[in-house]
Amino acid sequence: DNPNSSILSSVAVFNAIPQSTGAIIKLGDSQKTAITSSDRLFFGNYVTYKNWFSGNFNVIVENQSNNVWHSMQTNVFLATGRFYSLFLYNNKGIKTLLSEDNILSPSAGKVKIRVAHLGDNLANVNVESSAASGLLFRNIKYETVSEYIEIDAALLHNFTVQSVDGEIKLFSKEEKKLENKGIYTILIKGYVAANGNTDAIDFSIIKQ
Description:
Elements: E1 2-16, E2 20-27, E3 32-35, E4 46-65, E5 68-78, E6 83-90, E7 94-100, E8 110-117, E9 125-129, E10 135-140, E11 144-145, E12 149-152, E13 156-157, E14 159-163, E15 169-171, E16 176-177, E17 183-189, E18 202-207
Parallel strand pairs: 1-6, 8-17
Antiparallel strand pairs: 1-4, 2-3, 2-4, 4-5, 6-7, 8-11, 8-12, 9-10, 9-14, 13-16, 14-15, 17-18
């Protein structure tokens, strides 16, 4: 580990691990706790930006599913003063995906939105909105976080996520009015062949 505890970065965390009832994250050899049980980081939940170390260091993820805890360790490099998202998901064990975030405010009357495709067993996806012409996102691969794009904030959006093979089509639960100059992530999560509704494939629209 070579973290700098006096010069910080900022990290948000998304939990896309099916059946997760909580996750804890510890940083570096000191195992400083960045995400605690009180943050309620369960499946589909999100914890907003917190100050982490900068530099190169290990991250330990502990996840609870079915009253059993599992852990994994990964190494990250976080640049000073930058903003990141860490996505937790399952692919034959706990995995992480780190993205550097452009959090500059969108133009007036616009929102920024991106897609994080962590839906296991789901092919590449296209994303569209009833309030926009054409596709918003095209051919987004599994284990990928797209770049942000800007769309109109004043309109009601009903989002559709469809696999490029046409096998799966997911719809927003309701039309959504997005907050002017807000920043959002469409989080695709869960299993195509799920055992129950709690971890079935779906998506949520998370305001950061």
